[in-house]
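Board notes, transcribed. Complex of a protein with adenosine-5'-diphosphate.
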Amino acid sequence: MTQPVMSEARRYQQLRAHLGYLKLDAAADALPKVLDAVRTEQLSLTAALERLLDVEVTATEARKLTSRLRFACLPEPWTITDFDFAAQPGVDEKLIRDLATLRFLDDAANVLFVGPPGVGKTMLSIGLARAAAEAGHRVYFTTAADLAARCHKAAIEGRWNTCMRFFAGPRLLVIDELGYLPLPEDGASALFQVINQRYLKSSTILSTNVGIADWASVFGDATVAAAMLDRLLHRATVVGIDGPSYRLRAHANHASTLRQAVASRA
Ligand code: ADP
Ligand code: MG
């Protein structure tokens, strides 16, 4: 028995309304195309439903990624593939590729980037953070100075516990630029508490221009520095980068061109 045309049209409207009510907007938009495909490609019912829901799942994933990236506060859009390994012989490419598999997150292991300014510490941290966000993990990027300032403010406003919970939350926390600015006393203890409460639970990437042997000066206290390193390094990959500064590379090239020009004229 054939269904009357009107009833089929009404059923279509009803289906769209259902999708709208369930907020499956991408599927609602894709419905006409999928129904066309049912006719032109002779899709089975299962195939049609799968295609329709696939559109919705893809749209939801994209929306969630956007929101994770917004939360993460990554200061640059860099990815690991943007990193020029040939330009930085100080970095072990194999090691970075291994970190980029994000296995360290499963072990709640940490990553420490140690090296002078301009060698790519921030770029690699952001690249790993982005990969983690794309893989579905909650990520947050901050600098040591910002973290200290934020904890200080929270303490004054009676929100210390909320602040600590915030920094305990992300599956991956990036703390950039430790040692660039001296930490105030309560900053050192805030950083210690953040590291301590994440210890063995979730991963932290920390980058610093200060060699581990000199951390006492960053914290103004050898005991805090030792306790901090104890937790950080227990399960950690330390990436020491002692190659040339990428920032200064352009200047260096320029300077050497100038030198050659001058030399050839002499
Ligand atoms: P650091 O944090 O060690 O001071 P950054 O990661 O901020 O250094 O790098 C400084 C600048 O140089 C950034 O603009 C970064 O994109 C660029 N850079 C550094 N290393 C590389 C590299 N190996 N390939 C491409 N760009 C690089
Ligand atoms: Mg940096």
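Residues 121-122, 176-177 surround magnesium ion (ligand 2) (CB under 6 Å). The two ends are 99 Å apart (CA to CA).
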